[in-house]
# Entry
Amino acid sequence: MVGRFSSDSNLFEQVVEQTLTDLVALRLEAEMNGQRVALPAAGLPWFLTFFGRDTLITAYQTLLGGPRLTKGALVALAGLQGRKVDDFTDEEPGKILHEVRNGELTRTGQRPYGPYYGTADATQLWLILLSEYWRFTHDDELVRSLRPNALAALEWIDRYGDRDGDGYVEYLTRSPEGLGNQCWRDSWDGVRFLRRPVAGPADRHM
# Structure
């Protein structure tokens, strides 16, 4: 199933067509659990690899152009979903990864990117994409096959993501080589002014 776009503006149609064509340059292909999948990378040239947030948002935004990349993103990221607690890689059960690297520093264990899980939002975005994929395709078979991954993602949100039980997902890197900022602006200077946590009722009586 592929969406068709038409407009009374030839220029606008050409822009949309060129955008869909350009996505081919970002396409990654991989084999996950015996299944060949295609998914969008985060960008060229430095981010031509598996990502969580970037891949999921791109797959969501291009779903109307066809569900192949969306399906590939869901399957590939589910195949690499966190299974254990690992402080060095910020991995937790049910968590969707941030990125994968296979350079020398990662292979020798000096960097935690094989894969690295330091992201606060990829798990929620994976669940949103799964819902939107089903709404667009009604592919019951795939969604049912990913049910354990969806339940694990929901469990991560409640158990590990919401660290203080207030109903919101927080983040705190445990890895000495990990990202201090695990939101959209994840560069070292992406968050300029830290808001200190407010003491809860239990803290005030200590």
About this structure: The chain has eight helices and two strands. Residues 198-206 have pLDDT under 50 and may be disordered. Strands lie at 27-32, 35-40. The helical segments are 10-22, 53-61, 68-79, 104-107, 122-137, 140-145, 147-161, 201-204.
